[in-house]
Design brief:
6 strands, six-stranded mixed sheet, alpha+beta, 314 residues, Beta Polymerase, domain 2
Length: 314
């Protein structure tokens, strides 16, 4: 479905919303009416497309593929928690390609007027960079939620209230931070490309001084989010390693206790086994010989326990 929305007197937003993929009618309309190329549409329609910045000289079209979060943040498929959206710029028209899980980006573009100064609302890149800032804020919120979950698990570990569910939660957090890190790194690459091109060293991208400053601020914001995500990921990895060490230590302690019990409990069997043999043994024919066997058993057990304690094995 294609909707035309007027952002201001100069800029028009073309909202291309697909449930899954672009249908043939929408693709034909975008090609015939708006002169977008099939190559641009293929990039925009690929749900697995990596974050990128492209310029098509033939159609004079800029394309940005950017990673955003799935609106349904409770989806069990962690690989779908981050999805690509596409933005295209052609003839003062801003094209937004989204699906059901990412269509909220339209609200970010529409709300940009409330965040932008009136003097710069005529610049189409300002709407894009403002949207980048809001996307970065979403990532920051998501990382903060991850930190809350991580701290909860960490407190339970310190209280020795660990369980299998916490191991699974840690594994989910590790996977989620991996996807977030990949998405944020991709977005950072895109913004760095834009800043490089806006400097005029590679290709011409005409931005006003204010817009270039906004782009630089957006770059700093994404770098901060990247550092935040890296730190969160490192801490989760360390907690996971600590958790594994605790579990290994508990296993070793359990095996140690079982080994000591096995040694101690085997002594009565050995002593009684000797006195149960059909052979001559000292005082075996006395009525109190069973007391003697108990004394021998206790003495041997005490000697073994003393030796284990001496070796710091208890």
């Amino acid at each position: 479905m294609i909707n035309e929305i007027v952002l201001n007197e100069k800029i028009q937003l073309i909202d291309v919303h697909s449930t899954q993929n672009l249908n043939d009618d929408d693709r034909s309309q975008l090609i015939e009416k708006y002169q977008l190329t099939n190559e641009i549409l293929d990039y925009a329609d690929d749900e697995n497309e990596r974050a990128r910045f492209e310029y098509d000289e033939f159609s004079d079209t800029y394309l940005i593929v950017y990673n955003v979060q799935n609106e349904n943040d409770q989806t069990t498929d962690l690989s779908q928690r981050v999805l690509p959206i596409s933005l295209a710029i052609k003839n003062e028209q801003l094209f937004l390609f989204t699906n059901d899980a990412t269509h909220y980006l339209k609200d970010y573009l529409l709300s940009a007027k409330d965040h932008l100064k009136t003097s710069i609302q005529g610049e189409i890149w300002e709407f894009i960079f403002n949207t980048f800032d809001q996307i970065s804020s979403d990532y920051s919120d998501q990382i903060s939620e991850i930190d809350v979950r991580r701290n909860k698990i960490q407190r339970l570990i310190k209280k020795h209230h660990s369980s299998e569910s916490q191991i699974l939660d840690l594994a989910d957090l590790e996977d989620l931070t991996t996807y977030l890190n990949t998405a944020i790194n991709g977005n950072l690459t895109v913004v760095k490309q834009l800043e490089l091109i806006s400097s005029g060293n590679v290709q011409s991208l005409h931005l006003s001084k204010t817009t270039r400053e906004h782009l630089h601020d957006s770059l700093i914001e994404i770098e901060q989010i990247k550092n935040q995500a890296d730190l969160s990921s490192d801490i989760i990895d360390r907690i996971s390693n600590t958790y594994n060490n605790i579990l290994n230590n508990r296993t070793n302690t359990t095996m140690k206790v079982l080994t000591i019990y096995t040694i101690v409990l085997s002594i009565p069997t050995i002593v009684s086994g000797f006195y149960g043999m059909n052979m001559k043994l000292p005082i075996a024919d006395q009525k109190w010989s069973w007391v003697f066997s108990l004394i021998i058993t206790i003495i041997i057990i005490l000697v073994i326990l003393w030796d284990l304690h001496r070796r710091d094995s208890l």
